[in-house]
Specification:
By secondary structure, the chain is an all-alpha fold. It is 74% helix and 0% strand.
């Protein structure tokens, strides 16, 4: 005896229950795996929470507004996404598009597309848990843009450090040296590195201390080498030691590490080539070698 079919209303009810359950599961796991809160005095993210001349990207959301605004605020409050999205946007260089609100809408779209698509294709309501995977997928896109930007910064960073050492040796302090270097670079030829240094100089002009401006530089880039460079300058500024030899040695060390990384990647190339060999080339060779023999076996003989 066949079971009675499920009505469309029951389908949509189960779909809604699955969506709510998937987000509840994601919330529980994210809170269980979240690191303990750090001391507020040592949290550098609080130092860079507000950039100069900017406000929160989510301040335009109205709690009593449209359904989209209410959903945005619910997700921001439940998963604490406001600080995370603003930090990702900051490390992406604060582009006009996507804004932090656009990033949140993209995560919502992917969650609805993955969950709703899995449900509509299979009719199985429990597959809406794929919406959680869709909610996480855009993070890989944002992190990819951040890595591309960081690679562009590191490409020119050793040269910038060498220019700073040369300019400081001529008699300028490090902030005046950075301004002199930026002045000799045309606006249309500046890379992300020069733009970040220009932001730092502008922050000092607006009243931030050099220490805070340097820490903001490290936060905006998220690169360990830049963070070490900032610590080097702060330590030298506090102790009154000379920066010239320190910067030259640091630039030489960065180039040496970059050379070692290139040699390591070159050594791994042979190992990585085994994957396409086993997947694409070897099966093709086996088919070409064994196909005549298999055809002869099927025909009733080995052919010799």
């Amino acid at each position: 005896m066949s079971e009675p079919p499920i009505s469309p209303g029951t389908h949509w009810l189960l779909f809604g229950v699955g969506v709510v359950g998937s987000f509840a599961f994601y919330t529980t796991v994210s809170r269980l795996l979240a690191p303990p809160p750090e001391d507020a005095d040592s949290d550098l993210s609080k130092l860079a929470k507000k950039e100069v001349g900017t406000s929160s990207a989510f301040s335009t959301l109205n709690p009593n507004g449209s359904l989209i605004d209410r959903l945005d605020l619910l997700l921001l409050k439940t998963f604490h996404l406001d600080v995370k999205l603003e930090e990702l946007h900051m490390m992406m260089g604060r582009p006009l598009k996507p804004s932090p609100l656009d990033m949140l809408h993209l995560k919502e779209f992917f969650a609805a597309a993955f969950g709703g698509g899995a449900f509509l294709l299979t009719g199985q309501w429990f597959l809406v848990v794929f919406g959680v995977a869709g909610f996480i997928v855009p993070d890989s896109i944002f992190n990819g843009r951040i890595r591309t930007r960081q690679q562009g910064i590191m490409r020119n960073f050793p040269t910038m450090v060498d220019l700073m050492a040369l300019t400081i040796e001529a008699g300028l302090d490090y902030m005046a040296a950075i301004e002199r270097i930026l002045k000799n670079i045309r606006q249309d030829q500046r890379t992300e590195l020069e733009n970040e240094f220009e932001k730092m100089v502008n922050e000092v002009r607006l009243g931030y201390t050099r220490r805070d401006a340097l820490k903001r530089l490290a936060m905006r880039t998220g690169i360990p080498e830049v963070r070490s460079f900032v610590g080097l300058i702060i330590q030298s500024d506090e102790l009154g030691t000379s920066l010239v030899e320190l910067l030259r040695n640091y630039a030489a060390d960065m180039r040496f590490r970059r050379l070692n990384k290139a040699e390591k990647l070159a050594a791994q190339a042979a190992t990585k080539m085994l994957i396409p060999l086993f997947i694409f080339i070897f099966p093709t060779v086996f088919i070409m070698m064994l196909a005549p023999m298999m055809k002869s076996l099927v025909a009733g003989g080995l052919g010799f």
